[in-house]
Design a protein that fits this description.
The chain is built from 10 helices and 13 strands. The strands form 5 sheets. Strands 6-7-1-8-11 form a 5-stranded mixed sheet. It has a two-stranded antiparallel sheet with strand order 2-5. Strands 3-4 form a two-stranded antiparallel sheet.
């Protein structure tokens, strides 16, 4: 099962890793001309357009659930009401006849159950963020493979009463040279892009993740500025609170899904380290010329390069503990 959302011991990091490692496997270990094409699909109101009768049928026939449990799920989905609230304006209650009731604990699980029989060529999946990829030496072969995957998914959506948003669906070519892939969704040409933010990580054609580093740095600096507004000279927050705020609000941007983009260059790694040291200097009131190592020791914070190694090791251990047939183990 290539679904990484809402399931125990699965995460967006592993979904990104699955895609990135498959593309890398082709680009690095293939022949010199090998390339990859990736389709990023987008649904129109995915959670709200699920056909409930189809969903209940899948739960019964595909998962063997029957009796009171099936009745309970059917009761959960039946006669639900919904309304819209904008600031202090509230709309009228209306009967909700479609969807898995997002906002509830059971809703997301029902949604991935509904998507479990999507064509196998569509992988990895993270809730409604669906991907199809193809590797090959011949651009036309890659294009045919991606078009076939698109046609299969379109047919599935027609059968299930769902709609792919062709305007937001993108296709991207990975490799040394730039190529345009002609893929269509019901006569609508899919836009080719040179970079794409997949689950919060920006992918570039060569997978060197320079764009992702710049994006992470910009987000971390915005979070840092919010912390700095709490500090007035040395009369602001305590050092302990400042460090805790850094680890909670700033560092998360620098290390989000970093096992998937850990192959960054030394220059890009130094950009991440610079942001961490700048923020910690401000928190403890250190001078601009203070030693980076001394600042990190004073704050009890691990340098980014060691933190990156630690997070990669943790993710590796999680993957090694998975079932033998897991794609990441291969």
């Amino acid at each position: 099962m290539n679904q990484f959302a809402y399931l125990k011991n699965r995460s967006s990091t592993q979904a990104i890793l699955t895609l990135v490692e498959n593309v890398k496997k082709g680009l690095i270990f293939g022949q010199s001309a090998l390339a990859a094409g990736v389709l990023f699909f987008d649904f129109t109101d995915a959670f709200g357009s699920v056909n409930r009768s189809h969903l209940l049928n899948k739960i019964s026939t595909h998962f063997g659930i029957s009796g009171k449990l099936l009745q309970h799920i059917g009761s959960f989905l039946k006669n639900r009401m919904a309304r819209t609230k904008i600031v202090d304006k509230v709309g009228d209650w209306i009967l909700s006849e479609f969807g898995t009731s997002p906002g509830t604990r059971l809703g997301p699980l029902l949604f991935i159950i509904h998507l479990h029989d999507i064509p196998k060529c569509i992988k990895p999946k993270f809730a409604d963020d669906l991907v199809a990829f193809s590797l090959g030496n011949d651009i036309s072969d890659i294009q045919r493979s991606l078009q076939h995957a698109t046609d299969q998914l379109v047919q599935w959506t027609i059968n299930e009463g769902m709609t792919i948003n062709a305007a937001k669906t993108k296709v991207m070519f990975f490799g040394e040279r730039s190529h345009t892939l002609s893929i269509k969704i019901q006569n609508t040409e899919i836009e080719n892009v040179r970079s794409y933010k997949y689950l919060g990580v920006i992918l570039d054609p060569r997978l060197d993740f320079g764009l992702q580093v710049d994006y992470a740095v910009s987000k971390a600096k915005r979070a840092q500025s919010k912390i700095c507004t709490l500090i007035k000279g040395r009369q602001g927050i305590s050092v302990q609170l400042g460090v805790q705020l850094y680890k909670t609000l700033v560092r998360k941007h620098l290390e989000y899904a970093i096992p998937a983009w850990a192959n960054i260059s030394e220059k890009d790694l130094e950009k991440l380290e610079k942001v961490q040291v700048q923020c910690l200097r401000r928190v403890i009131g250190a001078k601009g010329h203070s030693s980076s190592s001394a600042v990190e020791v004073t704050c009890g914070t691990v340098p980014i390069r060691f933190r990156k190694r630690e997070l990669c090791c943790r993710e590796y251990i999680r993957i090694r503990m998975k079932e033998s047939g897991n794609e990441l183990l291969q």
